[in-house]
Queue: 2 jobs
Job 1
Amino acid sequence: MKTHSPRRYGVIALLVCLLFAPLVAMAVDDPSEMLPDPAQEQRAEAIGSQLRCLVCQNESIEDSSADLARDLRHVVREHVARGESNRQIMDWMVNRYGNFIRLKPPLTIGTLLLWVMPLLALCIGIGVAWWTFRRPRTVTPTPLTDEERRRLSDLTETR
Amino acid sequence: MNGQPSSPTRRRLLMAAPLVVAGGVGVGFWRMLSGMTKGSFDPHDIHAPALNRPVPDFALPDQAPGQGFSAQDLRALKSPVLVNYFASWCIPCVAEMPVLNALKERLPIWGIAYKDKPEHALGFVQRAGNPYARIAADRDGLAAIDWGVSGVPETFLIGPGGVIRWHTASPITETMITNTIMPLADSLKS
């Protein structure tokens, strides 16, 4: 028992370290960049999650740990703290980086096909289904030849 | 509709349809890929709407060994300059330095050190050879956001009156200079 105790202390120390490890990991994305007012912070997060990180391109700036994403998060929070509307902040970003920064593209001529695609796919599906079922299914088969009829009766009689 | 089995023309059309679709998609991909190798198509391009706009308001301090500049300095210009965002920690910036050094005699280049420690930026231009007539420091990277910069290197051709006439988010190459930058800069001079 006594010979085991140093090792046991070691294990306990390791477990304690592991317990606190997530805290260290979380500290990488600095909580000090959050706004003190939870309502404002929530709004900033909502805006940020709609903004594309221009470095990682498929992540929002809220999800990305790229330097530019951190700067943009900071900028969004500054604007929120200044009391600007979501629309104003979005416009500010689009003015600098174009519509590409919006993860949800606006409805324009260029994105029309993208937006109507679900409806279009549904219409095409319904059209194809309607066209298929509308056709008469009862295709009158060509009558059996004498040869075939004889073979058929042979087969059924042997059973 | 008309007699069964379905007419051979219709059957042929139905068989051709997937081939036509596949062919169309193939041509589209081929054009994208050849555009990528030629540099005319970049899937990562963010299409920042900087073109034909006046430079944004900014005022940046000196970065040794150059003198800082502001939007006013660019707007007061009578002839074109190239504004180049760079950083000592950026490998493509190192790669484009020889090209910029060859260009500086024909077109003045103003540099902006992006999120760089002053001593690192100084070391960088001393090592690579300094192509910049003036150098400013954008230490917090906030002016870069106003320019619509998404990374380094990024380069802007500024025409007289401080209007952005051309922009690229990729490293400058010889081909870009001879095919695009110099013809455009020459047309802006007259």
Job 2
Amino acid sequence: MQTFDLGAEGLRALNSALHALKGQTNMTSWEVVNPKGAHAIAAGVDAPVDITVRGSTGYYCAGMNKQATIRVKGSAGPGVAENMMSGTVIIDGDASQYAGATGRGGLLVIKGNAASRCGISMKGIDIVVHGNIGHMSCFMAQSGHMVVLGDAGDALGDSLYEAKLFVRGSVKSLGADCIEKEMRPEHYEALEDLLRRGEADGKARPEEFRRYGSARKLYTFNIDNASSY
Amino acid sequence: MTDFPRTPPRFSATFTPAINAEIRRAAATGIYDIRGGGTKRHLPHFDDLLFLGASISRYPLEGYREKCATDVWLGTRFAKKPIHLDIPITIAGMSFGALSGPAKEALGRGASASGTSTTTGDGGMTEEERGHSKTLVYQYLPSRYGMNPDDLRRADAIEVVVGQGAKPGGGGMLLGQKISDRVAMMRNLPKGIDQRSACRHPDWTGPDDLEIKIMEIREITDWEKPIYVKVGGARPYYDTALAVKAGADVVVLDGMQGGTAATQDVFIEHVGMPILACIPQAVKALQDLGMHRKVQLIVSGGIRTGADVAKAIALGADAVAIGTAALIALGDNDPRWEEEYRKLGTTADAYDDWHEGRDPAGITTQDPELFGRFDPVLGGRRLKNYLKVMTLEAQTIARACGKNHLHNLEPEDLCALTIEAAAMAGVPIAGTNWVPGRSGGF
């Protein structure tokens, strides 16, 4: 276990050390102490390492992560795991705006609640939120899965493309072109896997969820749909 | 019946035949006009400025003997690896998707042969472009299509795009006709559907967030890459100041003459400011912050000749970027395709339906038959020739003004032909020492 005191050594030294791990097989377990809400902690990591951040983080923690498993023992600021490519990011507390924005792969787990625009423009990432998500979540979401054990705020899935959304609680309102869809066997199967990987298999069962997806009516620009936007 | 003189038919200056035709088109279709390119209206521009040249008070340099340097450093503020270009004329961001793969390759070839950079666009980085571009600027756009850390790291600079001159405040739409299998795969969307490009970034709002976003990108790339911030010409003083405050190495300022792959004609023609009005405001912001020449300024929008390059630099820019002019150099809108332009209901030099993907020149298309017509080697050579001519033209003017580097050109070398141009550029009307608006500031 490598212990890194962020308060003493600074962000540049941390990220530089983590980036240097690419292609290495030793030093696979890291602990970051004294994060104190710093921004861009463990951004741009590209190695199969485990990193535990003991405390809350600022903006863009684990941004563009590849391969690494990053666990935050606290809450995360805006844009956690933005544009993640692969790996796993687990937030024990809450996450601020834009969690998982534009993520292209990997798994983001938020044990608490996520604020607005969670999963905005997601492009393949899987997101499991144990609590609630805020308004405009999954706006223009292209692909991947969003699983919400709690409730969803206003305008869920506005201008959605092909991402699949599963919500167990209430949805305050659906955004333009987002509709409820039938749960088929493959969806229950996918959801079961996501709940298991999202450390939520003991908290909820697949049959408790509803599925939401794109009506695909806005896929081709049509002036008669202008009032829908 | 007496044959009195009759009042001849008189056209309205307000309801012109062109306006009336557009009203009829709108009434028949119910949709606004969408097109590519930049504004087509007449605007105060570099043509409204003249260089004074050397005389008794200033020495000229000998045209074919004395050196006039053209190189430029970009990204010297924070980046560990700033860019050094041989000429101050760069290729503006244009996407693969909007342009064909061979066209992107040709831009890379021409730029590299000229010692300058080219720029990706919405849709990510292609191998054609990276492979043929010695210096490649990677755009970081609101859509984040194809965005990934590997391409960030193999770029030579990163351009955070906040806006563009053709449509400041607007996003974009790549229509389904141009969404081939390859474009769809790169953007992670179904083939054949219209693809929206957002007008705002998904994970930051405002200049304070932008500062943190830039810091994140620097961390991911280990502070090696110059980071540009590109804005459309709307409020250039404040946008430039805020970009500097957010930590930009380079500000890219695009006037309303700058082109786009596609947007509403009403947007192109009625939003934004001409580049002539933008440059002095941006330069003043840099000077007020003590950052002129420390944070570099690249300007674009209607740059066509070496004279335009020299005038932009004289007003305080460090470099320029060209988009539309580069496409024309490659062969866009060439009269050799006139017969096909007529079949599309247009004519050479007026074709702007780039979004439809039926470009006879094979440049703004994803149709294999059409882009197969375009030779990227020849296209690259044409672009290189054009860049060479522009550079020689700019040097010719600079030497005549007694400057041994293009960057030594200054506003004092200029005068204006019109009151509008004088007020915008902040230089006196020819033959006077009057700078309209100078006493009132901006």
